[in-house]
Amino acid sequence: MRIFSAGIITETNTFAPWPTGMRGFQEGGLFHGNASRDAEGMESQVVRIFRDLAQADGHTFVEGLFATAQPSGPTLQRDWESLRDEVVGAASEQGPFDVILLLLHGAMVATECDDCEADLVTRLREAGGPHTVIGVELDPHCHLSQALLDVADAVILMKEYPHTDYVPRARELYALCTAQAAGQVRPRSALFDLRMIGFYPTGAEPMAGMLHAMREAEQRPGILSVSFVHGFPWGDTADTGSKMLVIAHGSQELAARTAEELGMHIYRQREALLPRMPTIDTALDEASKMPGLSVLADTADNPGGGAPGDNVSLLRAMLARGVTQAAFGAVWDPMAVQACVEAGVGASFQLRLGGKCGVASGAALDLPVTVRAIRERHDQVGLGMSRCQMGTSVWFDCAGVDVVVNSIRTQVFSPDAFTGLGIDLDGKRLVAVKSSNHFRAGFAPLAARMIAVATTGAIQMNFAEIDYQRRRDLHFFPRVHDPLARD
Fold first, then answer.
1. pLDDT digits (tens, 9 = 90+) for 281-312
2. Which residue in 37, 132, 356, 420 has the fewest CB atoms around it within 10 Å?
């Protein structure tokens, strides 16, 4: 067989204050056929798996474009078309291919296209013809559309959140697509709309039990794959929402029946699945009274969901309380980074931090700081064992709080976002991170407790109040108590 692989990955927050352009992809990773060799992120591990599996099976493997950008606003249309056309052009010029394997996000929106993934796969289908098997791996925070399912042969989502299972899902996709190309299986996909919008970490109940049920269902005769579409609440599209996807061998009816069964299992737990987070004051009260390290998540200003990452409301509350033995990061503020770089290590001066990008950024903080470290190419462990770039970053201390400020916007995944700059987390009582859930895997070995905090910022968890315009059907939970009327 001849196998082609490519990927375009970004998660679009349509409410974000600025668009995503080509510079965002250059910062995140732009690889023209060399991601398997030169990339350090998730895309490198996935394309290497595809390559190694193909070579082990004696197939020809061709690697195309892999492009990744941090979550932000809609991608500029000209840049989307440039990336899309490079992938389609390579598949056409170097084809024909028996199998095309794609790593996409699923919640990418361009300024003139609400469903970038379906747009790409439709054009690849036109270029490759009806007999090319096209498989897609998606992030569960996607807007999975019927339009995409109609042109792809198999769509498989990561099951875990934090997304620690993208490599196993890549293996699963490869096996399914090559089996179809060999005539061994006939995948049939069905999507069940739960009419819910929510946020579903999988490390605790009830979602942990749901993942177990999904994996058990995959052992049933005829079931090839089960995926839960979490959806991305902060992307306003016609397809925004939570769904269940099942792929069955040769039977649309079996896929549809199983998708509804598993989807209703989640739907019946919708009240329990609503996020319930303490306020900043409540979370700080809890942390102050408990022994050991408390890790607090600044959920509403998470760059991983498209927020700016420069809201300092939680830091302001920490300083107002006189919190010490603490760390906070990472604040995205290239101007503050530059000021610290110019001042140099050891310099003490007054610095204005944060509050720069828009209304969701809140007010800036004026602080007396002392610069402790500067690192030009700071990075951290990202998803899995990938590396996540943070750019030129600085550590300064302010009244007993060690603060990390970075120049490439990203959420905090791992302790080395701090320790890589020299901050010693041993003996800390409190570490606050800009993340919603991906920090948990990295900080679990250190933390006595991890608290997701209802902070202020661009990613609010009151889903009933999100001002959707393109998702015109507002008959969904929690806006409506029982939208399926089956309780």
1. 999 999 999 999 999 999 999 999 999 999 99
2. 37
Domains of the chain: which residue ranges?
2-272, 280-460
Angstrom CA distances, 330 to 335, 353, 354, 406, stand at: 14, 12, 11, 6
> Mutual orientation of helices 252-267 and 207-217 as an angle, nearest 10°?
160
Bridge-partner residues for 40, per DSSP? none
Whether the CB-CB separation of 380 and 390 falls below 8 Å is answered with: yes
Average pLDDT over residues 435-457: 96
The Cα 282–Cα 286 span in angstroms is 6
Cis peptide before 96 (omega within 30 of 0): yes
State the pLDDT confidence band at 40, using cuts at 50, 70 and 90. confident
What percent of the chain has a predicted confidence (pLDDT) above 90?
A: 96
Cα separation, 18 vs 372, in Å, equals 32
Alpha-carbon distances of 387 from 39, 43, 378, 384, 391, rounded to whole Å: 9, 11, 10, 9, 12
Question: Stretch 184-200: mean pLDDT, rounded?
Answer: 98
CA atoms within 13 A of residue 362's CA, in its CB half-sphere: 21
Pair of tokens at residue 177:
């697509």
Quickly count: other Cβ atoms within 10 Å of residue 34's Cβ: 13
- DSSP label at residue 279: -
Q: Which residues contact 225 (CB under 8 A, 6 or more apart)?
A: 154, 156, 172, 176, 218, 245, 246, 247
- Those residues whose C-beta lies under 8 Å from the C-beta of residue 481, and which sit 6 or more positions away, are none
Whether 101 contacts 133, CB under 8 Å: no
Per the CB < 8 A criterion, the answer to whether 257 and 217 are in contact is no
CATH 2.40.50.140 applies to domain 2-272 = no
- Residue 487 pLDDT more than 70? no
Residues 6+ apart with CB under 8 A from 66: 6, 7, 8, 9, 29, 31, 35, 39, 43, 44, 47, 103
What would the two tokens of residue 79 be? 């840049």
